Every structure is written in structure tokens, then in C-alpha cells.
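Researcher: Let's do a round of design. I'm pasting the C-alpha cells now; please hold your answer until I've finished.
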């Protein structure tokens, strides 16, 4: 019977203590706004501007008001439709583009990749007006298409998937080509199953990015029936500028899907970072 190894005691050096203290401070600074938002959502109007963190008399009236007096469910439905559609279409097109740029040989491949990669250096405000002009010319203003189509193309997803595909062993493709498989069959039957960790992480990234989108929906829509949740909260705040208890309740409801997604998919995010080779 093997003897149990004694546990190694952690040696607390001044550097480790300082890093631990810094980590605790950063964690509290990150969590405090979220805690303040959630507790404020349960406060009555007379307490929401007070200094106390916890409400003395918690109430659900704020949530009832949000769901009965404002079409908030419609806003959340719009955000879900846009986020889900962009996520599915982006993963489909990005994975195909990344596979072609990583595994296929054709003239101008590196140039095309550099051009796509260079768009990561351009921020949204720079291309906001040109994109709006194009979308208006195509007749997609005040429509789901106008909210979805421009958000599909994202150089980050293509770049991350390409880096992942480059790291895959080439023997898999060679064996499949010898067996008579086409490139489309290789992509569908070999590449996509191996891409599940990185695709899971990109799913979370794309969904959360579009769920929290504000500038582009504000630019492209004026129809109240097409308002997404973030735009709905902004207009709600302007309409009831003094009723912060209602605004905090709406923000809490809007934050719940993002927190649940991160809670259930955090393992996939960590695994995708490991498989992508980030150091």
C-alpha cells in the first residue's frame, strides 16, 4: 500500500500576497456594479438612490411594471432572433472561409487573409455611415435583415478559426483525399467535428456581442417593433429618467441570458482557448 504524499504547503511570499490582494480588489470592483444593479432592481423608488446596498423592503413591483407597461418581451424577442441568426450564419460562413484560407492552395490566398485581418483594425464608428448607406441602398432599413446581415461578417471569427485549422495535422486530409473524399466532404465530416471546442467559444462570443449591440440597431432602425433589448432600455430610461428602479429591473432581466450562457459554457470557453494555442 503506497503511502499518502503529504500536501505541499503554499509558501506565501510578499509577491504572492500582493497578487492575491490585487486579484481580490479587481474581482470586487468587477462584481460590485452587477450586485448594485440586481439589488437596485428590488428596491422601491424611495430607496434606489440611497447608499444602502440591500433593500430594506424588497419588492417585485419594478419587474411587474417592466413587463406590463413596456413591451420588454418584444425587445428581448428581437434581440434573441438577431443574436441567434447572426451566430448561426456567422459560424457557417466563417468556418468555410477559414477552412479555405487555411487548407486550400490558390493564388492570392495570403493577400486575401491579410485584407480580412486588416479590417480588425477598423472600428465600427469609422464604417458606420458607409455601412448605413449600403444597407439603405439595398432596402434593408427598419428590417431584421438590416440588423442581421451586416453583423455576420466579422474578421475575428475568421482569424481565430483559421489559426485553429492551420494547427490541424495535414495527414487527416491526405488520407481522406486518397479515399476519394472531396474538400466539401472533408470540411463537413472531419473539420467541423474537430472544431467543436472553438465553435462553442465563438458561439458564446457572437451571441453575447449581438445581444449587447446598441450602436448599429440605433442607426438602422426607427420602428419601435424592431427595438432590441439594449435600445429598449435606452429609450425606457429617456422616457422615465427619474425612475431608476424600473431601469435597473429592465437591465437585470436583460443581463440574465448573458450570465446563464457564460455559466453553462464557461468550460467550452476555457477549452477553446487551450486548443487555439493561446499562451
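Researcher: That's everything. Go ahead.
Model: Designed sequence:
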Amino acid at each position: 500500500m503506497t503511502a499518502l504524499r503529504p500536501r505541499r504547503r503554499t509558501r506565501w511570499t510578499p509577491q504572492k500576497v500582493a497578487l492575491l490582494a490585487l486579484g481580490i480588489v479587481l474581482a470586487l470592483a468587477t462584481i460590485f456594479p452587477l450586485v448594485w444593479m440586481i439589488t437596485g432592481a428590488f428596491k422601491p423608488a424611495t430607496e434606489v438612490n440611497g447608499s444602502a446596498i440591500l433593500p430594506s423592503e424588497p419588492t417585485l413591483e419594478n419587474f411587474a411594471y417592466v413587463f406590463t407597461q413596456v413591451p420588454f418581451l418584444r425587445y428581448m424577442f428581437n434581440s434573441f432572433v438577431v443574436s441567434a441568426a447572426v451566430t448561426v450564419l456567422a459560424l457557417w460562413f466563417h468556418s468555410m472561409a477559414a477552412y479555405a484560407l487555411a487548407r486550400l492552395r490558390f493564388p492570392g490566398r495570403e493577400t486575401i487573409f491579410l485584407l480580412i485581418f486588416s479590417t480588425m483594425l477598423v472600428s465600427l464608428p469609422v464604417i458606420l455611415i458607409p455601412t448605413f448607406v449600403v444597407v439603405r441602398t439595398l432596402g434593408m432599413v427598419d428590417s431584421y435583415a438590416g440588423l442581421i446581415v451586416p453583423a455576420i461578417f466579422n474578421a475575428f471569427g475568421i482569424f481565430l478559426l483559421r489559426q485553429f485549422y492551420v494547427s490541424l495535422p495535414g495527414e487527416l486530409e491526405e488520407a481522406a483525399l486518397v479515399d476519394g473524399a472531396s474538400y466539401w466532404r472533408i470540411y463537413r465530416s472531419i473539420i467541423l467535428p474537430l472544431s467543436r471546442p472553438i465553435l462553442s467559444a465563438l458561439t458564446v462570443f457572437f451571441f453575447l456581442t449581438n445581444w449587447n449591440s446598441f450602436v448599429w440597431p440605433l442607426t438602422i432602425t426607427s420602428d419601435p417593433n424592431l427595438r432590441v433589448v439594449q435600445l429598449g432600455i435606452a429609450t425606457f430610461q429617456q422616457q422615465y429618467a427619474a425612475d431608476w428602479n424600473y431601469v435597473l429591473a429592465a437591465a437585470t432581466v436583460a443581463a440574465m441570458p448573458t450570465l446563464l450562457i457564460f455559466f453553462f459554457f464557461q468550460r467550452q470557453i476555457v477549452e477553446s482557448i487551450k486548443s487555439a494555442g493561446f499562451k
